[in-house]
Amino acid sequence: MNLGELIPISLFVCIAYSIKVVVDAMVRRHMVNAGGSEELVNSLLRDEEQRRRHSSLRWGIVLVALAVGFGLIQWFGWQEVNPGMIAVLALATGLGNLAFFAISRRIG
Fold first, then answer.
1. Could you tell me if residue 87 is inside a domain?
2. What is the pLDDT of residue 19?
3. pLDDT tens digits for range 52-62
4. How many other CB atoms are there within 10 angstroms of residue 61's CB atom?
5. In a domain, 95, yes or no
6. What is the domain extent for residue 106?
7. Looking at the structure, do residues 58 and 101 belong to the same domain, yes or no?
8. How far apart are CA 16 and CA 51, in angstroms?
9. CB 99 within 8 A of CB 64
10. Using CA atoms in the order 24, 27, 33, 34, what is the torsion angle rounded to 10 degrees?
11. Same-domain pairing of 103 and 63
């Protein structure tokens, strides 16, 4: 990939993420200013915190599984992209998601 192509893509991602952060902050502020019960606001904020933690857990497990998949590819000595290599990476991603599902069921 050319570095000239990477800069506009990363700029777009940064702008989209900053818009998401601002909108989330505005929604929280409107929720607090709307006069909802304190218990409701605290419940929503706790739920959001739990979703954030679960998201971090999911990405951590999936990335570790993908690292194992890439390690297997390196161990087998595959050099070019072929269906077997794609299958190993898809399997690693699927196993990571299934592991997250099992762990999140035990936590929750």
1. yes
2. 95
3. 888 888 889 99
4. 20
5. yes
6. 50-108
7. yes
8. 20
9. no
10. -160
11. yes
Q: Which amino acid is at 93?
A: T
The count of structural domains within the chain is 2
Would you tell me how many other CB atoms lie within 10 Å of the CB of residue 35?
6
Mean pLDDT, rounded, for 16-42 = 82
Find the angle CA(62)-CA(53)-CA(9) to the nearest 5 degrees. Answer: 60
Instruction: Judge whether residue 1 has pLDDT over 70.
Output: no
Cα distance between residue 97 and residue 108, in whole Å:
16
Amino acid found at 105 = R
Chain centroid offset of residue 83 CA: 25
| Residue indicated by tokens 């390690």 | 71
This prediction has a pTM of 0.64
